Automatic annotation (TrEMBL):
Family classification: Belongs to the methyltransferase superfamily.
Organism field: Triticum aestivum (Wheat)
PANTHER family linked to this entry: EEF1A LYSINE AND N-TERMINAL METHYLTRANSFERASE (PTHR12176:SF78), SAM-DEPENDENT METHYLTRANSFERASE SUPERFAMILY PROTEIN (PTHR12176)
Name used for this protein in its record: Methyltransferase type 11 domain-containing protein
Domain Methyltransferase type: 61-162
Gene Ontology biological process: methylation
Region span, Disordered: 454-482
InterPro entries in alphabetical order: Lys/N-term_MeTrsfase_sf, Methyltransf_11, SAM-dependent_MTases_sf
Lineage: Eukaryota, Viridiplantae, Streptophyta, Embryophyta, Tracheophyta
Pfam family, one: Methyltransf_11
Length: 695
């Protein structure tokens, strides 16, 4: 039955009780209404599910004024409970059916919060109810609440039949919410020959089975058949194919990365029960429900006969230690479980996304997420404990603490890590010098490897120290030798993205010699940075390397039309932007936003003149922000490439205004040429395999 404009306007919001009351009041009493799928079309497939089960307890949520319940009642199905949150329609239906169908029940009730005990029904019949809750503006919240309630009140082995138009957002929810522990079939409902409906109706049937078991979907929707809306049917078929691939992967034995919702839905069985030796990887948190996302591992202790201090605990692993064998390997993780004395341990791994977060903020963010992972333990009343691995620093020697008017407070320190590259034999032999910016909760801005000077490099004065001085230094010496014998190893690259920057120079390898003769200019805004670099990190200027103190953006603008220095005025120019942002609210951690504005990019293009290379270290926490930066670069530069390592949050972008110096068609040769120029070892060929052309 078609709706009049007035009736249609009354239902601008399908989730509003007031709108439905208004809708039914305008329609008046005594008339049934079907949004889609009339009884003659759904009778046969529906009765095939109910054959011989006249005593079945049937629930019809969001019943409205449909004639569906009365049709089933008249066929002998007496135990039918209808619910709707509109008092107007429930009162009308009672008047219509109380005398002629006295055993049929009617309840004023919100289908997202039903007042029935668990396992009350054998069969749930939804005809458009879920579709009405899934208004695009509302999102999936109400739909998820309703499905949770439907699954709760359905008995084990019971059936949930859902008649739906299977719009993508509705179908996606149904497929994911009934992925674990449910046997699902889907078929298209035939239309009347005279029907001119623009939409195809589908019936999905979910049978409640054993928690954690994953079944492939049985589909009766065929691409060769004729439907009233072929585009709609093809979209459903495609979605089912993708979903079955996901389900097959769950049954393949591969170590799947679950979401918290997957676990809540029973992906690994009953979370309230400890399963000795169970280990599952998962992602905690999602946009809109938590500040951050976290990679985690849930582990149930192998030997549950032990005496545990905690029935469940959370163990946080900082980024600095995430790659250690103890935390990165399954064998090591079981050792952590054993030492933590917890029946269940949830290991949470911090990474670059959490670099600016205070640990107390992280714990507060995690608390509601891990609550659903806590096993049932009636005797436990204490809150779930949070444990944390140290930052991996075994020994720390602060060399200087200073505050800059530009950068803020910072620390220079020498540290010994507890573990370096997992090599227990040499970890205590390596010391690193670090520059810490306190504005970003301890961000390690620079890290350099310290190496011991050879005896021949030491001055005679070092051998003439007084015995008192020697004794004092020997106390600080530890396993690394005297501090006086240590210097920065400039061949060590502190981060993998540094390697990517160097490897990307392969793009202009043949032109690098001429570029080197033109010298190098470092532009630094904060004068204190030059002092720190010179005093602690072995930085020094010479004829080829100069420092310009000032604003980098203004420097490029002022020099946009200048010629390269040196003998070769035709030398290629290379501009490297590696600057962290003090404002993380924009989702752009590096560089600051003004370095990717159109004005700076245009100045950079002019500065590079005929065909230099702009290199940007990009750290974008938001995919939308990253796409915005890429789009701006594409608008200015004809050539754009990207290098991103899987284990690193940094992405290095290479932009050039022309192909004049680019060797993109001979990258293997160019990589070999670059490698020959370098004075230290970098796996150029391996990194360049990850180079992607963006434009």
């Amino acid at each position: 039955m078609a709706t009049t404009p007035v009736l249609h306007d009354a239902l601008l919001d399908f989730t509003s009780r007031e709108n439905w009351d208004k809708f039914f009041a305008l329609r008046g009493d005594g008339d049934s209404f079907e949004w889609y799928a009339e009884w003659p079309q759904i009778k046969a497939p529906l009765l095939s599910l109910l054959l011989g089960e006249e005593g079945t307890e049937i629930l019809v949520p969001g019943c409205g004024s449909s004639s569906l319940s009365e049709q089933l009642y008249d066929l002998g199905f007496r135990r039918i409970t209808n619910v709707d949150f509109s008092r107007i329609i429930v009162a009308d239906m009672l008047r219509r059916h109380a005398r002629v169908r006295p055993q049929m029940r009617w309840r004023v009730m919100d289908m997202t919060n039903m007042q029935f005990p668990d396992g009350s029904f054998d069969f749930i019949l939804d005809k458009g109810g879920l579709d009405a809750l899934m208004e695009p503006e509302v999102g999936t919240k109400l739909g998820m609440k309703y499905l949770d309630e439907a699954k709760r009140v359905l008995k084990s082995g019971g059936k949930f039949a859902c008649f739906t138009l299977a719009e993508s957002h509705v179908l996606d929810l149904l497929l994911s919410e009934f992925r674990f522990g449910w046997d699902m079939t889907i078929q298209a409902i035939a239309s009347e020959p005279s029907s001119k409906s623009a939409f195809q109706t589908f019936m999905l049937v979910m049978v409640k089975g054993k928690m954690g078991v994953v079944h492939t979907i049985k589909s009766l929707v065929d691409q060769s058949a004729e439907y009233c809306n072929m585009q709609q049917a093809n979209a459903v078929i495609h979605a089912l194919q993708n979903e079955n691939k996901i389900r097959e992967s769950h049954n393949s034995g591969v170590d799947i990365l679950f979401s918290l919702r997957d676990l809540q839905l029973g992906a690994i069985g009953d979370l309230k029960v400890i399963v000795p030796g169970r280990r599952r990887q998962l992602i905690l948190g999602e946009q809109g429900s938590s500040l951050y996302c976290y990679k985690a591992v849930l582990m149930d202790a192998k030997n549950q006969n032990e005496t545990f201090v905690y029935h469940c605990g959370v163990f946080i692993v900082p980024k600095a230690r995430a790659q250690e064998w103890l935390f990165a390997s399954e064998e090591g993780q079981w050792l952590v479980v054993e030492s933590a004395k917890a029946a269940r341990l949830i290991m949470v791994f911090l990474d670059s996304r959490h670099a600016s977060a205070d640990i107390d903020v992280v714990k507060k963010d995690l608390s509601p997420l891990v609550m659903d992972l806590e096993p049932e333990y009636p005797e436990e009343t204490d809150p779930m404990p949070f444990m944390m691995a140290s930052d991996g620093v075994k020994q720390r020697d602060i060399l200087q603490e200073v505050t800059s008017e530009i950068t803020g407070p910072m620390v220079v320190e020498d540290v010994l890590y507890e573990n370096v590259d997992g090599d227990q034999s040499c970890m205590s032999e390596k010391m690193f010098r670090r520059l810490i910016f306190k504005r970003s909760s301890g961000l390690v801005q620079s890290e350099a490897l310290l190496i011991r000077e050879s005896p021949s490099d030491e001055t005679d004065s070092k051998t003439k120290n007084s015995s008192a001085s020697s004794k004092k230094k020997s106390q600080k010496k530890g396993l690394t030798g005297s501090k006086d014998s240590l210097r920065v190893d400039h061949s060590y690259l502190g981060s993998s993205y540094h390697s990517s920057i160097i490897c990307g120079l392969s793009l202009v390898a043949s032109a690098l010699s001429a570029a080197a003769s033109s010298g190098e200019r470092v532009v630094e805004l904060d004068p204190m940075m030059e002092e720190v670099a010179t005093k602690y990190f072995g930085f020094s200027m010479d004829e080829q390397l100069k420092v310009h103190l000032g604003d980098g953006i203004k420097f490029i603008e002022e020099n946009a039309h200048s010629e390269p220095n040196g003998k070769d005025s035709d030398a290629v120019r290379i501009l490297i932007v590696d600057v962290d942002s003090s404002d993380l609210s924009s989702g752009l951690s590096c560089p600051p936003a003004n370095f990717v504005e159109d004005a700076f990019l245009m100045s950079a293009k002019k500065f590079l003149s005929a065909g230099g290379l702009l290199i940007i270290n990009l750290v974008a926490r938001s995919s939308a922000v990253r796409e915005m930066v890429i789009s701006r670069l594409k608008a200015v530069f004809e050539n754009l490439y990207s290098l991103q390592l899987e284990e690193d949050v940094n992405e290095v972008l290479f932009a050039s205004p022309s192909k004049r110096y680019l060797e993109i068609d001979h990258l293997d040769e160019a990589a070999t040429k670059l490698k020959a120029m370098l004075k230290f070892l970098v796996d150029v060929e391996s990194d360049m395999k990850n180079l992607q052309r963006l434009q």
